[in-house]
Design a protein that fits this description.
It is a single chain. The chain is of the alpha/beta class. It has helices at residues 87-90, 93-99, 109-121, 132-147, 232-245, 257-278, 288-299, 345-355, 374-380; strands spanning 2-7, 10-15, 18-20, 23-28, 37-42, 45-49, 79-81, 104-107, 149-151, 158-159, 164-169, 177-182, 187-190, 214-218, 250-253, 283-286, 309-310, 319-323, 332-335, 359-363, 387-390, 397-398. The chain folds into two domains: 2-226 and 341-398, 4-Layer Sandwich (Metallo-beta-lactamase, Chain A); 232-338, 3-Layer(aba) Sandwich (Rossmann fold). The strands form four sheets. The protein has a seven-stranded mixed sheet with strand order 9-8-7-6-5-4-22. Strands 10-11-12-13-14-20-21 form a seven-stranded mixed sheet. It has a five-stranded parallel sheet with strand order 17-16-18-15-19. A hairpin with a 4-residue loop joins strand 12 and strand 13 (187-190). Helix 3 packs antiparallel against helix 4 and helix 5 (232-245) crosses helix 6 (257-278).
């Protein structure tokens, strides 16, 4: 029996006849990578971290209808925090932003810009087969939701009636943040996607001094204890060097608008050195669709074109082509989206020890049966006093 009640001015969940004033509910993105969206009700503050979508499968969006088993109305949500603008974290925001009509929506300037690019300028929430009237309605919905986003700076605390909020740089990509929320009796820390190493000098990860009692950790590599983790972009540089030596025509592809920025930075900062090691110069061209993305990013003030990337007709001789296609005749395709900055298993382990939270929830990871994992490692620890829990989608967790 699931329901809800209100006592002492707080929203109270009822699960199996027992009342919970404070609880955590992953609506998506807990035991999977995709559709990240996490609801917390703590000390009367109702908040959602991220509003993502899945790229594959029938159920694209998080289970927002499930929320109505715990709250009276979406209008009861106080805050929505968008940690960064990768599609698996903002792909359903046009829905949530309109459902939660009273919520204060907070993000960095870059995240707001990228969210608009993904959802509106490039129509990533639109299916090609949808009727025009549906498409127009979705664009109006997205525009209204995006206009609600308030831009806030990092490392500056905002005071609200029931809580304080601070964004910390997360590495990973431009504009990515970790979110700290201090309520009356709790400190909640949400990591979003983070990386100990920075992305080409962008957005160096930094932490505050508060010790959280609730740590929501995006733990992509929580089941990758044996994975060799050096900078994955270094691996990509080596692959490109080898392909250039072999005189291949290379398709460097990305299906993500936000990842295109990483791709452009990678090329601009690394292609000269790659060609030097390969002892062979190579030109970099861009397809028409990727050029539209590049132009949009350049209009937002990001460095895209610095003489390395060319548009126009591609030559017959070996070159690198940046595009959205996953394959192209006459080219060896390298999917750029496989390369990203996420913390390694050991880095996450140190992060959990450093935060020393009462409870750490592992999110944004696909559990692998029989694999060494962070939750089991800390369960066996004789010195770590907190709990580390692999969270599951659509399961409610009481917060004491």
């Amino acid at each position: 029996m699931v329901g809800h009640d209100k006592t002492d001015g707080f929203e109270t969940a009822v699960l199996g006849g027992e009342e919970m004033k404070n609880y955590f509910l992953p609506l998506g993105g807990a035991d999977e990578v995709g559709a990240s969206s996490y609801f917390l009700n703590v000390d009367g503050v109702r908040m959602i971290f991220d509003a993502g979508a899945r790229i594959h499968g029938m159920e694209v969006y998080p289970d927002y209808p499930m929320l109505l088993q715990y709250i009276d109305d979406y209008g009861d949500i106080d805050f929505i925090f968008l940690s960064h603008a990768h599609y698996d974290h903002i792909g359903s925001y046009h829905i949530l932003g309109n459902l939660a009509k009273n919520a204060e929506v907070l993000a960095t300037k870059a995240t707001k810009e990228f969210t608009k690019l993904q959802l509106m300028d490039f129509g990533r929430m639109i299916a090609p087969e949808e009727k025009e009237v549906i498409k127009r309605a979705k664009y109006r919905q997205a525009e209204a939701a995006i206009n609600k986003i308030k831009i806030i700076p990092v490392m500056r605390t905002l005071q609200r009636e029931k809580c304080s909020i601070t964004f910390y740089p997360a590495g990973h990509m431009a504009g990515a943040v970790m979110v700290e929320v201090k309520t009356q009796n709790h400190v909640i820390f949400y990591s979003g996607d983070f990386s100990i190493r920075t992305m080409f000098g962008i957005n160096q990860m930094r932490l505050g001094e508060s010790r959280p009692d609730i740590f929501l950790m995006n733990a992509t590599n929580a089941y990758q204890a044996k994975k060799r983790m050096k900078n994955e972009y270094t691996d990509l540089s080596q692959i490109l060097e080898n392909k250039i030596k072999e005189r291949k025509r290379i398709l460097l592809s990305s299906r993500s608008i936000a990842k295109h920025l990483d791709l452009f930075y990678f090329i601009n900062q690394n292609i000269d050195e790659i060609c030097l090691r390969a002892e062979r110069p190579v030109s970099v061209y861009i397809t028409e669709q990727s050029e539209k993305i590049g132009n949009a990013l350049a209009d937002l003030g990001y460095l895209v074109y610095d003489g390395h990337i060319r548009s126009g007709r591609v030559p017959e001789e070996p070159h690198i082509l940046i595009g959205e296609e996953m394959k192209k005749e006459g080219y060896e395709a390298i999917p750029f989206d496989f390369y990203s900055l996420h913390a390694s298993y050991q880095e996450m382990k140190l992060f959990i020890k450093n935060e020393n939270a009462d409870v750490t929830y592992l999110l944004h990871t696909k559990p692998k049966f029989g694999e060494q994992n962070l939750a089991d490692d800390f369960k066996r620890s004789k010195t770590f006093q907190g709990s580390v829990i692999q969270a599951c989608n659509e399961q409610v967790y009481e917060i004491l």
